[in-house]
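Section 3.1 - Work completed
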Amino acid sequence: MSSKDSGKQESTILGVAETSVAYGPDVADSADTLAAASNPQYRTLNLARLAEQGMLTQEGGRSSVAEDFRIIKRPLLRQARASGAEAIRHGNLIVVTSAMPGEGKTYCAVNLAMSIAMEMDITVLLVDADVARPSVLKVLGLPPEPGLMDVLLDPQLAMADVILKTNVANLRILPAGRSNKHATELLASRAMSRLLAEIASRYSDRIVVFDSPPLLITSEAHALVGQMGQVVMVVEAETTTQHAVKEALRQIEACEHIHLIYNKTKSFPGNDYYGYGYYD
């Protein structure tokens, strides 16, 4: 992982691996079954299967991926918790995006949320805001559910009605919900601004990670990124062109706190093992 400070923008480069997986139904143990019976918003994640597919879990032990995300989350958490003159507006709202599809942004968003959930005094809400092509629930092995779009479309529907609790104690999930042809306008609406303000301020110990659409493909990403305190842009190693990266960064140049994740790398100069590198 590389960290460089240029003006007000911080860039963080991280090498991680991505795995393509096939998903099936989860198998809940007795404790999870009881929890689900008493709470209709409770969902059981098959952590063993996620770990087998290379995803980060609390039971996964020490791995290169776990170490990658321990490093990448530190500056994000530090800025989210900043106070006084260094406080960032909506600093606890972190959006994960990319220039183009297929660069691994959902993989990074889910693993970042999982890593943050391991903190002792923080809860994390993982929001699937890629409303045109939602994939967070698929990655986690869950079926589609009502979520963000439903709350924006129905004033009578509370966010608490669609947030899912999980068997990861500090992890909550807000699905994308139903698709809508006016998704860009909904994400740029006053209702969305009010929702983000509520999410950012209601729980002081909560970090919110948004999986966003790609910047160069959809207009929804711009409506969303502009309202976030911190931006994480995923760059696919040896695939994403320099032009695409520069154009994506140009489109979000008004954002002061931008981090880069260098994803799908198989080696990093200066390291003896597969994983990450850190440079000042």
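Second construct:
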Amino acid sequence: MKRPATLNGFLDQGCTIRGEVDFADLLRVHGHVIGSVRSAAELLVGEGGLVEGEVEVGRLAVAGTVKGKVKVKEKLVVHPGGKVLAEIWTPALVVEEGGVVEGMVHMANGLPLDTPKQKV
């Protein structure tokens, strides 16, 4: 059984970060991140949150907006009102009613993104 994620950081509305963001367990973004976000854990982009750039995380939940390139190792969930306007690589994608995905989606047949594909 997975242990619950520990909140490493919270970026509230009205705050902007430009550059590289790395974290260990869980980051909630309700503000604005411009740049790259990397972690083996979970990124949660809340209502009003905006992430622009490159995102490479283990899990991603979006109720705000993500623009750019998105690589998710486990699962991407777009909640109602959430928007992902990006080129996406993920083995699992859930778009709830009212969520928006616009862009190219690459799915890895349930394999982790770093697993080499076997020839058929």
